Amino acid sequence: MKIGLPNALINQYYISFWKPFFETLGLEVIVSPETTKSIIDKGIRNTVAEICAPIKIYMGHVIELLDSGVDFVYIPRFVSICDDDAFCPKFLALPDMLNCAIPELKDKMITHHIVSDNDDIATLQNYFDIGKLFTNDKKLIYQAIENGRQKWQEYRNLCVRHKCNSKIANDAVLKGINIEKNSSQIKIGLIGYVYNIYDNFISMNIMKKLADAGVEIITFEMLEDIQIEKQLQRFPKKLFWTFSNKIIAAGYHFLEDDNIDGVIHATAFGCGPDAFIGKYLELDSAEYEKPFMTIRVDEHTGENHLQTRLEAFVEMLIKSKQEEMKNDDIILPYKEEMESAA
Amino acid sequence: MKASFPYMGTQTFYKKLIELFDLDVVPPPVPTKRTIDLGVKYSPEFVCFPYKVMLGTYIEAIEAGADTIITSGGSGPCRAGIYSEVHEKTLKKLGYDVEFIVFDDLNRDPKVFMQKLEKIKGKQSWLKVIDNFWTAYELSKAVDGLQKEIEIKRAYEIEKGSFNALFNDILLDFDRNAFTRKEIKKIYKRSKSALKAVKCTKMPPKKDRIKIGIVGEIYVVMESSINMNIAEVLNSLGCEVTRSMFISEWLNHAIYPKIFRKKSGQLLVDNSRKYMDIPIGGHECHNIGNIIEYKKEGYDGIIHLMPFACLPELITQSIAPNISKDYEIPIMTLSLDEQTGIANNLTRIEAFVELLKKNKGENQ
């Protein structure tokens, strides 16, 4: 039997758990391919016009999986993974929305509530009933959850201890691909949800574009929980959404951290929580005298303007770094290329 | 302390409540183009429309002399619960010296809630505090009841504007003369008979009347200055209108325990179960429940209003086609923000009403 995992929304954060979990249960796991124009188009046709781009993409991935002939699609309902926090309403109603939009999904959707008091969602309470759908062997279910948890912990370790981004860490954990990292004198804190910055279509490869410009990128997954907690103390009333809190905390951490030269906020069209995150950081970034840029992307965005803005931003960081260090020797890889070409 | 508050629907209730606490009130001005422009200027682009209008309202209220904003908070995950935090931060950065008193859910932090209440109550006794709330609650019920009646009868008024003029007088009457529950009752009775005296065409038989229910996000449903005055527009097209959101009903939902299924809104939540597994923080369950209730009560169509990119209402909108199909009731969603084209929406509304009239003809 084949179970499909839509390669969208927070899949990138939990795939290291879900894939081994379902595989141990004896299922063949099909992860939908990276987002393409045709996947987005499928999503757009089945969602309301105003909804945020990530939901349109998710819808597209689900339809793509159904078209590819999977027996089930796993669509969890994230309710809460932190005491009194919740998720964005669109996560809370995700299965309901999909059910209404795609009637043929009815018998194929595997869904359940995910409730946990921390990021580690691999609990019996969450996953025992899911295991029961596929096997009666209790031991196998325990083992599946444990396998998944171990892999997921490995992934988190790589992120936090070795400062790998999610994509590299997941590839290392699931496919055994060697870790390749670039370090650079220019470091940018890139804040944004995993479903925006790792989705190459929607983010137009922002990670690669920055890496090509010779920049080292730090993302929110690389921070320790304690660092996130510390930053959240500054809010008398924090945001309601767990990942938004992580991101805004990461944003402030990057603003405070002297090793980080600039902060970029990558957000998708129509993202509700990000409207506030952006406002907070915009209001406060001036105090830290640190360059801050917001990049908003959607399914129509042209690529050239992004390239130009990123280059200008990086160029500015280099300039100010050179002035600060009274040193013209900072030469980044892409500049070498440009100079040799000239 | 010169207190002001967000403008939402008729402001008689909030104004009276603050007055009963012996505080100075700076009533916020009716939202205008300027209010919206001010709000938009200092708001994030993708924040919901009510946030922008409220920010503009606050700025105008501060300009008029207010130094304190009294408003409500929330526990999410709808964005409205965090409005006041960001409003306050934005206003402070803009250099306005203003204090926010935000009332969150009582059970979120009862101690803080009581501290804030104590700040407002000043030297008044707790008994008087309860009395204040009770009086304001009765006032909201009276005003909302009259408004509901008007939104049905206005469809048949002979001289255009007569109900509006009367309602303004009634509000003024309540504002100036109603400080006890007894006075409220008296004015309510007086107003009721005044409503009866307004000249109307003969009401058509029940089966020929076009009834439209308006559901949606509470602010855009209640505040006619930013919803294109939709109730009046529909009335002028000869439709009876019922809006699903009133301050008194909102209070009822908060006050009554769940066993009072209708008053507490539990009935509506139960209705929505079929489509929504869990509540998601806004009024989506009530809206879905109301659509179903309206159908049962014989309404002909539903207009669903929402601010652009409203998180919970986008879900309602996503689910609406299925409800419409299952219950055979036309639903039209209008999303509103500072860019709303009135002419475009009017055309849609007119077409929608035409459709309802045609449906009605076919069914008979």
| Count of distinct strands of chain A | 10
In the predicted model, the low-confidence regions of chain A spanning at least 5 consecutive residues are: none
Portion in beta strands of chain A: 5-15%
CATH class of the largest domain in chain A: Alpha Beta
* Helical run tally of chain B: 15
The number of distinct helices of chain A, counting runs of at least 4 residues, comes to: 15
Task: Offer a few descriptive terms.
heterodimer; A: 342 residues; alpha/beta; Rossmann fold; 2 domains; globular; B: 364 residues; four-stranded parallel beta sheet; 15 helices; 54% helix
Describe the 3D structure.
The complex is a heterodimer of chains A (342) and B (364). Chain A is built from 15 helices and ten strands. The model of chain A has no long low-confidence stretch (mean pLDDT 90). In chain A, helix 1 (11-24) links the parallel strand 1 (2-5) and strand 2 (28-31). With 342 residues, chain A is an alpha/beta fold. Chain A folds into two domains: 2-161, 3-Layer(aba) Sandwich (Rossmann fold), CATH 3.40.50; 182-341, Rossmann fold. Chain A has helices at 11-24, 37-45, 53-67, 89-92, 94-101, 124-134, 138-162, 166-175, 194-197, 206-212, 225-232, 242-256, 272-288, 303-325, 333-341, and strands at residues 2-5, 28-31, 72-74, 77-80, 109-110, 113-115, 187-191, 216-218, 262-268, 292-297. Chain B is α/β, with parallel strands linked by helices and 364 residues long. In chain B, helix 6 packs across helix 11, helix 7 (162-177) runs antiparallel to helix 8 (181-197) and helix 13 runs parallel beside helix 14. The N and C termini of chain B lie far apart (61 Å). Classes of the chains: A alpha/beta (342), B alpha/beta (364). The A-B interface holds A 47-48, 50-52, 77, 79, 84, 86-90, 92-93, 95-97, 100-101, 113, 235-237, 239-241, 269-276, 278-280, 283 and B 43-48, 73, 75-79, 81-82, 85-86, 89-90, 93, 104, 275-278, 280-282, 284, 308-309, 311-312, 314-315, 317-319, 321-322, 333, 335.
